[in-house]
Amino acid sequence: MALDPFTQGVYAEAWSLVQQAAAINPETGRASYTAADVQAAAADLFARASGAEAFAYRSALASLYGLATAGARAAQALTTADLGASIDSSMIAEWPTAAPLLTQEAVPAYMAKLGFTYTTVTGETAEAFVTVSGITQLPATVGTLQGMLIGSALTAYTTPESQGGNYLPGQMLSQFGAVTSMSLFTI
User: Fold this and answer.
1) Cross-sheet strand order for the sheet of 93-94
2) Given CA atoms 140, 143, 146, 147 in this order, what sign does their dihedral have?
3) SS3 of 174, please?
4) How do residues 101-118 score in pLDDT, each as one tens digit?
5) Longest Cα separation, the chain
6) Cα–Cα nearest to 137, from 99, 82, 186
């Protein structure tokens, strides 16, 4: 989805907040917060706006919230799917700055995220995430995608930082735990 310059600015300021608000609450099965909650929480962000700009800011937040909610639902579908299931459109979300649909069809590109737990070399349980971008062809099954992401996580969290690893000192992965979430986006 091509964002207009104004919405691009709102995306840069508020996307993290919007994504957190749209996360699915496991107890209710609904988004953690509503679009109105996001707008209220973002009041500081658009306090500088007045008149038409304030309306445009709220509209941009609502659009981003819609994308984030769709992304949370897609992540939930992907995370809870049987590992042998084929990846379908209900499991893929659109990143706010994704290429236009015609470009996506001609040159598909995806980004996948994996949340996981692990045991550190000091014996503590930790939670981490790994993001893999540049995927041009989707694996046939959810399990194949999960395996690919786990492999990336193992590489990132067992490779020293000086060699491009992702872990913080003392948090090197000694044992992989469990997958906590998976997300797949068109970019």
Assistant:
1) 93-94, 173-186, 110-120, 125-135
2) negative
3) strand
4) 889 889 999 999 999 999
5) 55
6) 186
Least Cα distance to 181 among 76, 30, 53 occurs for 76
Question: What is the distance of C-alpha 59 from the center of its chain?
Answer: 22
Most confident of 29-33, 47-51, 143-147, 165-169: 143-147
Give me 177's structure tokens: 């735990």
Question: β-pairing, 173-186 with 93-94?
Answer: parallel
The stretch 84-106 carries a mean pLDDT of 93
Q: 118: which residues sit within 8 A by CB, 6+ positions away? A: 125, 126, 127, 128, 153, 157, 173, 174, 175, 176, 177
Q: Which amino acid is at 53?
A: E
Question: Comparing 182 with 163, which gets the higher pLDDT?
Answer: 182
Is the CB of residue 132 less than 8 Å from the CB of residue 116? no
Angle between helices 5-22 and 52-80 (to 10 degrees): 50
> Burial code of 5-28, b = ≥16 C-beta within 10 A, e = fewer?
eebeebbebbbebbbebbbbeeee
Residue from 88, 80, 78, 160 nearest 112 by CA = 78
Burial of 65 per CB tally in 10 Å (0-12, 13-18, 19+): buried
